[in-house]
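[job 4471] stage=fold_predict status=RUNNING
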Amino acid sequence: ITGIAHILALSGFHIGIIASIIYLLLSFISNRPLLKVIIFTISISSFIFLVGAPESAVRAGLMAILFVVGKTLQRNANALNIISIVIIITILIKPDFIYSISFQLSSISVLSIFLFFQIVKQCLETICHKKSKIINAVSLTISASIISAPVVAYYFGFFSIISPITNLLIIPIMSFGLINIIITLILSFIPFLAEIYSGTVEFIFTICINLIKFISEFNLIAIKGKAIFIPTLILSIFLIYIFI
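[job 4471] inference complete, writing structure tokens
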């Protein structure tokens, strides 16, 4: 209802944090780029297999690996090329993925961000006459939803009106929580410190849950029904037209 179920999917949100930490930890072998790529690839692949290789995690993991390969080869990695290559490779290896709702939504959301983020951001900055992190966050949410919203409406029969606001509130808090989880794991051999950080994580997630429950109790925050697909599709086409 609040449009943040995607946070529970192991995708770019989680893989991005883990990949950044692994890449940072491997900075001590920056003079051996090939070894760095190999260790990074093995680490990300191991994590993906450890969590059961869900479609969204496979997509995000392959993208992270390709970005690091591009950076190592000192090439400017084109995001649109990378997501296209990942989709093609994934479908060639496992054709059944093309029927997976998780894979469809994960790929479409990222593709939508790469296609529309800069356009939406420039438009909002022009309207507001300033640049800010809030505009970046709103632009990210809107650009991700432009193509994915009709797909969600088609499969699940509803359109979340409140989604941009809840994403703006919840994602930063969840990001902070995930980082604290990783710190807790790193400090697990020091029980006292690990307990402090685990308590922080529990407190952060409690805030998120209560906030989501509070928002979801409001009326008219989502439109439900099998007929919602066509209006959502028209709205997306209209937004693309307006922003472009």
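[job 4471] summary: Strands lie at 158-160, 222-224.
[job 4471] exit 0
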